[in-house]
Amino acid sequence: MAASGGCKGKSICSKHVTMLTAVIMSFGVISCCLGHGEGDRDDRLRAEGKGCIESERRALLAIRSDMFDSDERLSSWIGEDCCSWRGVACDNATSHVIKLDLHHPYPYDLVDEGFCAASETMGVSKLNPALHDLKHLEYLDLSMNNFSGSHIPHMIASLVHLEYLNLSNAMFGGLIPPQLGNLSKLHYLDLGGCRHSDPRADDLDWLSRIPSLKYVDMSFVNLSKATNWLHQVNSIPSLEVLHLRWARLPYIPSPLPHFNMTSIVKLDISGYRNFYPAILRWFSHASSLVYLDLFECGGIDIESLQMTLGALSNLKALDLQYNLIKGDIFGIVMNVSRSFKHLDLSWNSLSGEVEQVLWSLGPLEYLGLDVKGFDTQYTRILSLVTSIDLSNNNLSGEIPRELTNLHGLLFLNLSKNHLRGTIPEKIGSMEQLESLDLSMNNLTGDIPSSFSSLNFLSHLNLSHNNLPGRIPTAGGQMSTFIDDPSIYDGNEYLCGTPLPECPGDAAHQSPPHEHEEKNDDRLETVWEITSIVMGFVVGFWSFVGTMIMKQSIRIAFFRFFDKAYDWCYVQLAVGCARLKSKRQSVT
């Protein structure tokens, strides 16, 4: 007997289940219809795995509509899921857009060479106000576009979650909004521009309000009115990289602040025309500094430079080009740290013996080896150096023979000095050398024949020396320079291709008419042999081709061959029989 609470038959149970399902679905439909706006719809989309918030998708499409896109880098911006679009990234948990990378794909290594000029012909972009709707952005890159001198929009300062902001080389102009100081989470800030776009900042107080900054680039930003710039960047102890190249930095009155940039690793203030020795000595407290660029700063005296270099034990790269530094170069190189890798002292007024300098450059790639022996130590320590530029100084002495042991050297520039003596005979052993400039010295002696072993040499300048003799152009890479006589200018007694012939060259050559006769004979012989071979080939294949193509001719030929064979056989047999009978009659 069935229980009283049970179903009275399968049909009744089936009806109950159907009715319950209908009720549940009705509630579901009502819930959908009575939803609470666009936010609930976005939640449903995320729950369904579509991964894109509709309001942010529409904001992205609005931004795209105002961007110049000749390379169609935004062609992937179609479909419902904006998180899969190129340059866009979303948070995995919330689906909010957290990254927007719209940088123009111009090669970064060519920016200094041509982007600023090329940007004038690039289509103009505008920054759509819809950017304000991407409130959860943590990463924004608008670099390498052309915003045609427009001001940086204040709405960027409302994106308070930003940790990375790159507006470099985007042709923004005018006053940089101090509201950027509200971006308290920012780690990376690049506002570096082009010379003619002329963005400016009248002070950097707003910068000091971002304590988390690690990277700042304001190269070519006009900071001429930011008189407290050093005090303000000095108040950011987390700062690791600072680029203020050609930023028109103003003079800093004394006294200088207590040094507080304890994390600084890379510092570039090249083109700072108001630089003076006290600032250089102030940098000696930057114990973590690895890279220092003082290109064309001026105001650098050799005593302050020696003291600073002696204190910067972690420094690996230093650029001191175009500073008109006077004094003994040995006083500089003897103070560089053992971890030094790059030192550029070109275009100064330094003096000293070149051999002594090159020996002192050993720490450029110090390996921590206790190697005994003068030549061996020189070779082992400098074996990893790839570039040496000591041009435009007052260096004297001879080129050290040990220099040729630097087999990995790619670039060597010793031009515009007072070097004497000969070019090392074993210079050909520097097989990786790509550029060699020894011009404007007092070098003498023949150009070594080992130059022909420099197979990778693409730039050579030996002009304005006292080199005599014949230019070695037989074979090797030297034969590629025969069209450029300027690389040998100013060597009065140098001769041979591409310069005028050396004395006696004509005597060793055969008379011109003799060469012509020999050439004519050789040409005639070649034509005769060619004609014979061609005649045989044509005749043979004409005969064979006819035999293959025509059956009647082929049958006639073989019949003729058979008859000729039979006739020859009969004639030979008859002749032999007659000869035999004559011999028998004689006997």
UniProtKB/TrEMBL annotation:
Transmembrane segments: 526-549
Subcellular location field: Membrane
Bilayer topology term: Single-pass type I membrane protein
Domain Disease resistance R13L4/SHOC-2-like LRR, residue spans: 123-330
Signal peptide start-end: none
Residue ranges constituting the Leucine-rich repeat-containing N-terminal plant-type domain according to the UniProt record: 54-91
Swiss-Prot/TrEMBL keywords: Glycoprotein, Leucine-rich repeat, Membrane, Repeat, Signal, Transmembrane, Transmembrane helix
Gene3D superfamilies recorded: Ribonuclease Inhibitor
Predominant location category: membrane
Matching InterPro entries: Leu-rich_rpt (IPR001611), LRR_dom_sf (IPR032675), LRR_N_plant-typ (IPR013210), LRR_R13L4/SHOC2-like (IPR055414), RLP23-like (IPR046956)
Matches recorded under Pfam families: LRR_1, LRR_14, LRR_6, LRR_8, LRRNT_2
Single GO cellular component term: membrane
Family named by the database record: Belongs to the RLP family.
Protein name, entry field: (wild Malaysian banana) hypothetical protein
Organism: Musa acuminata subsp. malaccensis (Wild banana)
